[in-house]
């Protein structure tokens, strides 16, 4: 038998479950310490609270100077006590009213047995039952033919007492009688305190006033013979009680519980805490990435408790002497150091000392969207007033220094500090859990500095070199030779980086492409080679040392310790170097030269000419560009005058532009001219800005500051440079050009004009300045961006909250399964993606050793055999495939020669060691929720995307993510991508004819009306040619059923004849029929809106807009196995839950990918598994209440009152196993660190 643990410790008590049930009279009386009988609050003479009134001192206190009559304690120690009041007549409880109504509908109104349906004969007592109806003010009436009865609470109570135990069991209730209340609980005074304005005047809480009103109403009920008065008084009592439970005007009990400021979310799920500070943040490149600079003033206020032991008593005494602590706790008495001189410490005392360098604190920025928004840093005290940290750590916090504020939390126990250091330390969070890419890396000035420092033309004298490398702690001696010896000894910037690499613990071997890679060993130095920790070629930029530098970056080669040192040193050096060298942006950086202006004008002319060709394509006019007369120049002439160009080609270009302008002005168009060609015109105009960006790269100097920043990835892009120097480009509003606000024009002073500038094309640059109309259009699209950001923040915030509530309990168990209160996945899906990096490492190291001659000696020790026990079979197989693939593509003959099984084993072992498996008991659900919710803030709100065809848009961005996770049935743009069995154009047209939406008017040749003396005839002739061209397959006989019955219909070949007798009103019916017959749909699939044929790799396929997946799959000619829909609800109904699960994952991946956001498959897999775990459920209040059973969790999410009342009616037990519930009741969370219980066997 196991030994019992020694219980000499005081283990903290834990709540194991909470049970909800309706408060019966018995429970209320047991809870109550005093009965309230009077409505008055105070004694009229003594002005003290009445003992039997609503603020009786038996129920607790509101004033400091009095004593509780129940527990005899003062205001600080008395927690308050409940009282009760017995109502003069029973009433309905507003929270249980729905349930009472439901029960009354299903029971017999005579014997209370179960009915088969509402108004039927009872099997037990054979009585006929009528209907039940709800009225206002919680009134229920019972109607049986002409007999109407008001079901009062008394009548309902007597009926409920007749319910048999078997029916109670079916209703899942102990006793429905408890739903009607006879007495109420009077809450303690502490939760409704009186506010003393002066000795005379007191303000009472809303709840107290409501209780007093209820007692007054109840006491006034007169049991007289006048029924009407009695019922009115009963109604008043009902209203008075309802206003205590819920009342929008004065806060009822429900209003105190629900919403963001209610008890659940404001005081239970989240609380204000001590030992925190908040101030503005500033950058400081001289701090390490894992340090945070804390103002001395804050460090003196926020303290850490430390116990005096025999090991630290001397240090502690020094702290007291230097007054670096605030308090000492001796024998449970707190002494202030300021007022107690000459304190002598004893072992066992506790001192509350100031923060000092090296302490661990938590650093946080709101909104905290993912776990990296709160990390553990080491303290560095300084004398200024702001928090400071290294700019490399801005990305995870999403911080900038334009006035942002951040918070610190000082941890109070050694256990918390250790845990924070290991789990939340900056050095253990360099890689984002969203996609395993670096999220802390060099940024902005560091990248610019590093890029300029490592360029081919950067040379340093011995003194400059020495000064730069003096900025780091040298751990290892390293000799760096000068690169140039004559005429002076000079070092390159690469030498500084080589010195930095030499100080790291690891050896670095890397071949990678930088951002402006053209080809290997090109003069632009875009191919980077680091061999044996020496930078031989290439310039360091964002791809190598920045964030999201997974494919070519340096971080995956290093340990966390080395990454930390590399970033620290890199930040010191590059910021110093840039400050000494100087780097700024001026007006000359955005001046275009002559060639650039000439090329830009050519670009504009080409674009405009292409648009004119497009417009003239279908118009049979012979207009050419030669016939136009003069017109105001469209080109900003100031731009050309300034550069004083006498160049004839530019003059010719100006004249050409004038001609083009004139043409646009003279051309009168119809709206249809543009509608069909809109997408082509848009794509022509959007290319102009891109081409201008390429021109800037071509013609601007390599010393141009914006270009340098764009090249190294520190800030900006090609488009930013293009807009400043060359052309601002087309302004877009919700995915299209500026729309017409007036008839065929955007602004009133344009004359019916087709010119691109009239639809928001801005041809000027910011340097040359915008004209008035250009400025206006630019402001229009700028406004849309601002509104978008504001809307998006609210949308994504709510989405993130729902995701987290749905996924918070999902964790990884020791058997590798993923569970919450039920199984979600049998195995957590993790993949390794970095095979090529490991291959490069093995290759470079082995080649180095081969050249040094140590390869064959060290191989038997270094490249070990496979350690089969710890390896994953699937991963090993994948490794072998990858190794064979890499060796097959290897260019180095030498490496092919020395690559043997030992090297292959080393490759496999390294892959296994690099594979970061999720730790057991990890909150994988919360990680998935954050990884999907956080990137939502980076997405643009309304984005449309061409789904392979120009004329079809797909909703993307936040609205699409919302559609998917809410599992919406009617999505904005349902599209089915259908592959064909025979993907030829002819077959595609045939299948399109079977699916597309056609109306009768599409195939009508003529309609003839014939009137005789007796008859009216409508003849409809169908066009055989149209039917064969459109490949429509339809049965002409089916039209009979769709035509009005008043007419006799005969169908002969392709002719429909409708005959009717001539009557007075029939003439108008005839005209109506003529209109309606054109609109009759003849397609088989109702939901399809339109079908487009698309070509891909010389194969034809169909894009079908609309729903109707089942019908499409059954259509002849469709290849049903590979046909996809983007409507997940429809996929679930047609193909089942597994297909639906794959569709959720595929659609989420596609949406994020089209915004350039990478998310690991494992997160999307987990979300799709949770959504399809109990059938398809959206992450909405409905879905979450189906997924979760815990009352407290649901109450802290949404619909607080409904969830609490439902739990009480069904008498549910909450076992408090989830995260929300544990936080609310103050329990350890059951996974993560809290999933492990450690016991000390004190005997041994």
From TrEMBL:
Reaction(s) this enzyme catalyzes, per UniProt: RNA(n) + a ribonucleoside 5'-triphosphate = RNA(n+1) + diphosphate
InterPro entries the record matches: DNA-dir_RpoC_beta_prime (IPR045867), RNA_pol_asu (IPR000722), RNA_pol_N (IPR006592), RNA_pol_Rpb1_1 (IPR007080), RNA_pol_Rpb1_3 (IPR007066), RNA_pol_Rpb1_3_sf (IPR042102), RNA_pol_Rpb1_4 (IPR007083), RNA_pol_Rpb1_5 (IPR007081)
Keywords recorded for this protein, A-Z: DNA-directed RNA polymerase, Nucleotidyltransferase, Transcription, Transferase
Ranges of residues in domain RNA polymerase N-terminal: 177-454
Pfam annotation, one family: RNA_pol_Rpb1_4
Enzyme class: transferase
SMART domains xrefs: RPOLA_N
Record EC number: 2.7.7.6
Keyword Zinc: no
Superkingdom per UniProt: Eukaryota
GO CC terms in record: chromatin; RNA polymerase III complex
PANTHER family according to UniProt: DNA-DIRECTED RNA POLYMERASE, DNA-DIRECTED RNA POLYMERASE III SUBUNIT RPC1
Function: DNA-dependent RNA polymerase catalyzes the transcription of DNA into RNA using the four ribonucleoside triphosphates as substrates.
Protein name: DNA-directed RNA polymerase subunit
Organism encoding this protein: Anncaliia algerae PRA339
